[in-house]
Amino acid sequence: MRKLLTNSLMSTYQRLPISFNRGEGVWLHAKNGDKYLDALSGIAVNTLGYSHPKFVKAISDQIKNLIHVSNLYNIEEQCLLAKELVSLSELSATFFCNSGCEANELAIKIARLHGHDLKIHEPEIIVMDNAFHGRTMATLSASGSRKVQAGFEPLMSGFVRVPFDNIYAIQEIASKKNKISALFVEPIQGEGGVNIPDDFESYLKELRDICNKNNWLLIFDEVQCGVGRTGKWFAYQNSSIKPDVVTLAKGLASGVPIGACIANEMASSLISPGKHGSTFGGNPLAMVAGLKTLEIMKEEDLLGNAMKQGQLIVSLLNNEFEHNDKIISIRHMGLMIGIELKNPCAALVELAMNNKLLINVTSDKTIRLLPPLIMNNDEAKLVARKLIKTIDEFLKKT
Question: How is the beta sheet containing 259-263 ordered, strand by strand?
Answer without folding.
Answer: 93-97, 259-263, 245-248, 217-221, 180-185, 124-128, 159-162
